[in-house]
Amino acid sequence: MNRLIQAATITAFGTSAAPAIAQEAASLDARVNEAFATATGPFVSFIFAPFPGTEFPWIVMWLVIAATVFTLYFGLVQLRFFGHAIALVKGDYSDPNDAGEVSHFQALATALSGTVGLGNIAGVAVAVGIGGPGATFWMILAGLLGMASKFTECTLGVKYRNEYPDGTVSGGPMYYMSKGFDELGLPGGRILAVLFSIFCILGALGGGNMFQANQAHAQITQITGDYPGWITGLIFAAIVFAVIVGGIKSIARVTEKVVPFMGIMYVLAALIILLVNFDMIGWAFGQIFAGAFTGLGVAGGFVGALIQGFKRAAFSNEAGVGSAAIAHSAVRTKEPITEGFVSLLEPLIDTVVICTMTALVIIISQQLIIDEATGNYMLNEAGTAIATVDGNSGVALTSAAFASGISWFPFILALAVVLFAFSTMISWSYYGLKAWTYLFGEGKTSELIFKVIFCIFIVIGAAASLGPVIDFSDAAIFAMAVVNILALYFLMKIVRKELQSYSARLKSGEIKKFSH
Amino acid sequence: MSTKLVIGLDGDSSGERALAFAKDLSKLIGACELLVVYVIEWSPFSFQTAEENAERHKRREEEITTAMARVVEPAVAALTAARLSARGIVRHGDVADTLNAVAKKEGAAQIIVARSTDNSLKKRIFGSATAQLVMEADVPVTVIG
Prior knowledge:
The complex is a heterodimer of chains A (about 525) and B (about 140). With about 525 residues, chain A is mainly alpha-helical. In chain A, about 75% of the residues lie in helices and about 0% in strands. Chain A is built from 21 helices and 2 strands. In chain B, α3 crosses α5. In chain B, β2, α2 and β3 (about 85-95) form a beta-alpha-beta unit. The interface between A and B is medium-sized, with 40 and 27 residues.
């Protein structure tokens, strides 16, 4: 969901449609692109605008400052309650009488399936490829800080969710914005909620859908050879349609089981490569620390490394975006803050563990070319990124790095990318639907309209490279963060009150573990 | 104080044999309460979609109502008709663990189950719930063949 990843992938894979189809569609694509670019250009430029005189996008700073504020405001909650979060996920504090309800583990796994994906595979390669190994240091730091953002939004997501008489629940930023602001007697909650919902729908159709379909097609053609993207789009759309409209849950269930397996396999493969190259791990961390503060010759020096690291973490774990608050709000708990504790593990797993694994494999595999005379990294001809062994970037760079240790891994990686893309689409179809029903009301017809629109966008996303459309959708996802974080600043005192009350009861022994 | 017997049903015809045995045993014991338990296989560590999570509470209630109506209530009615004291319980969880937990919580003297009729691959690899119960239960277990 990153413009940089798109650029890298488009460079790596070329256009997705076959020449004949592309020619026919070219004029239409061009018109659509032009219309969208004109209409959305100012908005996209505004969201991704850098601070004057720098290349640092203000939206990244917005996310990182928020994460730092929440970290300090809640007294390093991610460290103090890390052990407690693990205990909650294990079910130590779950009432056996609630068996059969959504567990903390299930809510966490569902949220993770929406965030772990292309960002961890392609995005890290882009970050390290441009920002050098030092980007990893800043990525880890941003991931650790982002844990506090997740904690804040997910606590509020559960606290202010809607519980309907039929037993179903709906939650997310739009609900805590309207209800939370009302509770504090603040105006503007509903306006923020409507704005958030609009951006969430656009983000779901773009980054959570078209970009995923586009990348999945690109990955498939790497193995099968080039063919028209609309074929992939139609197949994906048919499967997603069967799941979200046809109610064929078995497909989603299979995916939900396979995706974590693929994630674990990815981490295991990375571990194997790291173990085989055990003697180089110290050197790799040396490169990460040295690069973090000197840049080791990358474009923009250490500031370049910092920008790439922060960007990658923010774009990968979605901390502060508000999407996780929708996913986590279904958990069954009497204490909303417990889901906040559990959710803080999400950036840790997504960014600190999985992204770091990817980065280490890329560094250790020595795909990035070092100038032996200076010890610094060599830049490519354009001077925009580090030169790589085969000129790879994005997914191709990660794939080449893993292939240097396990030759057949690129095939598994291709399958993982496709499954991650599908899983992300299913997750975002739900996030978008919740925003849609907030705006237009719950009801079968209303829901069906959104679901059909969602499936149509899969075909569009896979068939065409509508750059401005995807740029706009990405901007919409980060616009969600602008609205969401603004609301969180007003509502964080409610979370602190919950935290103080819960901590006191945990200390006094009022909140106890259950014996299972 | 009456003796409590837990009867684990799996919704299969084999449960009838467990019920028949429990009936005979309770008549021999005298003051006896029969707890008819049906466990809906469920794990807190399974993976679900966001939509499934949102509907989970509703589904759980439906599962309990269905299990009560189709399996537990007919069994309790049959026992009550035979002038025995009986009540039904439906729980979600691991079958063996949950039956054992109910027995412990209720202070039951024994758990009665029928031999598993499940011949799935899962059973061949991991063993049946009955075998697991026999190995791990804190109270005596009678398995009806």
